[in-house]
Design goal:
Elements lengths: L4 H9 L16 H15 L3 H4 L9 E5 L5 H8 L3 E6 L2 H12 L7 E4 L12 E7 L8 H11 E13 L2 H14 L2 H4 L4 H8 L11 E2 L1 H7 L5 E7 L17 H9 L3 H4 L2 E7 L9 H5 L4
Parallel strand pairs: 1-2, 1-4, 2-3, 4-5, 5-6
Antiparallel strand pairs: 5-8, 7-8
Helix pairs in contact: 7-9
Bound molecules: S-adenosylmethionine.
Length: 290
């Protein structure tokens, strides 16, 4: 039976504050929001602050699809963007608004809505961000079409989807799928294994984990798409559940050799709605000024 979006909504209602257990500050205070933000950008997603281009969209119209508690959307607003956001969950919408209110930050519209039917007009935004969301919605293809629809003709999307990196093959497939027998128990369905083991509390209705070829197919209607792997993640960049982290020199060596391009567990997808400028020929460049 096809997955109903209500199931997705219900699942995320119970997990509506990503990474909340990492702060001991008063929940929903400014200090608490700040603490989660610091941990997110310095530790858990250290690539995000640069790659989400928070500083480069001042004065532009930015939409976030799947805001969670609004940590990323706040960054665009702090840098002068005119921001809007949607999330499937009512609670997440309230938390995101609260995150803005405790800072006295303005926003255009933050409301409940689905990525599969984005409640905004065509050609409305300069930038759409969706981080760790579209792999959870039943119809990811439709959600990406919707992202494209609401972008202005020269607009840009930044999307994070899960990738098949080290964690995928070692942890999901080998340890959980084979050694713990989940692949056999779930009727030889890898998708069922991914759904079961990928989120912190497990048992998500859908968690897509993609190859580069699948990502290319999903974004086929964008004339220019840059797809790169990011994030070595747990044990390398942070100690999961306050456990252990590998010695820093190992992580540094892996970063030195750009290992995340091969082993990274996130796809960072930057997609442009307009075609890129035409490339010049090599000879053309050589005989040009500059
Ligand atoms: C893993 S959290 C990510 C939240 C935030 N982007 C972050 O990185 O912290 C997934 C979020 O996506 C939302 N979500 C799931 N499916 C959605 C959909 N179809 N439309 C809008 N939001 C959705 C959930 O309610 C949840 O808040």
């Amino acid at each position: 039976m096809p997955l109903n979006i209500k199931e997705v909504q219900e699942y995320w209602r119970g997990q509506n504050v990503p990474q909340q257990w990492y702060s001991n500050k008063e929940p929903f205070s400014l200090q608490w929001f700040n603490d989660l933000s610091k941990k997110r950008f310095k530790t858990f997603y250290s690539y995000l602050h640069k790659d989400a281009e928070f500083e480069y969209h001042s004065g532009e119209k930015v939409l976030e699809v799947g805001t969670g508690i609004g940590t990323d959307l706040v960054q665009y607003a702090l840098n002068g963007a005119k921001v809007s956001g949607i999330d499937l969950g009512e609670d997440q919408v309230s938390f995101t608004k609260l995150n803005f209110d405790v800072r006295g930050l303005p926003y255009d519209e933050i409301k409940q809505g689905s990525a599969e039917d984005i409640p905004f007009d065509d050609n409305a935004f300069d930038l759409v961000l969706s981080f760790g969301v579209l792999h959870h919605t039943p119809n990811t293809e439709l959600a990406i079409q919707e992202v494209r629809r609401v972008l202005k003709e020269d607009g840009q999307a930044i999307v994070m989807l899960y990738a098949r990196g080290w964690k995928h093959y070692l942890k999901r497939c080998f340890l959980h799928g084979i050694l713990l027998g989940k692949w056999f128990r779930f009727g030889f369905s890898w998708q069922a294994v991914y759904n079961e083991v990928s989120e912190v509390n497990g048992g998500a209705p859908k968690t897509g984990i993609y190859t580069k070829r699948q990502v290319k197919k999903l974004f086929k209607d964008f004339p220019e798409v840059v797809i790169e792997k990011r994030r070595l993640g747990e044990f390398f960049e942070y100690a999961p559940y306050r456990s252990r982290i590998l010695p820093e020199f190992i992580t540094n060596i892996l970063h030195l050799f750009k290992a995340q391009a091969l082993l990274g567990e996130n796809w960072l997808i930057t997609a442009y709605k307009a075609p890129p400028p035409k490339p010049r020929s090599l000879l053309g460049v050589l005989f040009k000024n500059y």
